[in-house]
Structures are given as C-alpha cells and as structure tokens.
Amino acid sequence: MKLGAFSVSLTVKDIHKSKAFYEKLGFESFGGDLSQNWLILKNEDCVIGLFQGMFEKNILTFNPGWNQNAENLESFTDIREIQKQLQAKGINMLTEPVASSEGPAHFIIEDPDGNQLLIDQHR
Q1: What domains sit in the chain, N to C, each tagged with a CATH number?
Q2: Residue 72 and residue 65: Cα distance in Å, rounded?
Q3: Which of 32, 58, 89, 105 is geometrically suited to a Cys-Cys bond with 39, CB 3.0 to 4.6 A?
Q4: Each residue of 45-66: pLDDT tens digit?
C-alpha cells in the first residue's frame, strides 16, 4: 500500500504568526492561499500545512499519487484500493466511504489515540 506524500496539517490560531515562526525554522511557502487562511510550507522533504479555522485539531495527511513536491507519481495505490484494504483490516472510516470510481477523493480515519489521518487523493 502506497500512501503517497506525507505532511502534517496544523490547525493554527493566527496563520500570519505561524507562517513567520516556521519561516524562522527554514520553511518556505510552497503552495496554498494565505487570503483563504491556508498555506503549505516546505523545508527539504518536510511539508507542513497551516490551516486557520478549517480543522479542530492537527491531522496527519497522505496524498496518494503525489511525491513530496506535489508532483504526480506514475505508479501509486488508488485511494479506493487503500480504503478497501484498510476496511478489510477492520479500520473504520470517520467520513463516508469514497463513492466515486475514479479521480479525486478523500477519507479520514483515526488511530487508537484519536489522531486523525486524512487520505486525500487529488487526481
């Protein structure tokens, strides 16, 4: 099972202060839209997303079909296959199962400690 690119999606109170803090650690803007209160930052292969007012808590994010530079991978495990494999292993979905047969989709699961994992395929 290939989960794709990994990042941590952080819920922040003030996106401008958070952006300034992570820039001091060497992170640079990589994507997103500051005017919409979300920003993606990168430091080498480490990717974090800053999200103000979008999530209740931090989320581990995986993007099937992408590498750490948000570039399309030629070969990857489709999100519907990932979902099928996880459900077969007894992992419950926090969101509705993926209904489409192809293309972009996402679902959320939770680990035993309540940490949420977002599996988010963009293509």
Answers
A1: 5-121 (3.10.180.10)
A2: 6
A3: 32
A4: 999 999 999 989 999 999 999 9
Give me 22's structure tokens.
């992570």
SS3 annotation, the chain: CCCCEEEEEEEECCHHHHHHHHHHCCCEEEEEEHHHCEEEEEECCEEEEEEECCCCCCEEEEECCECCCCCECCCCCCHHHHHHHHHHCCCCCCCCCCCCCCCCEEEEEECCCCCEEEEEECC
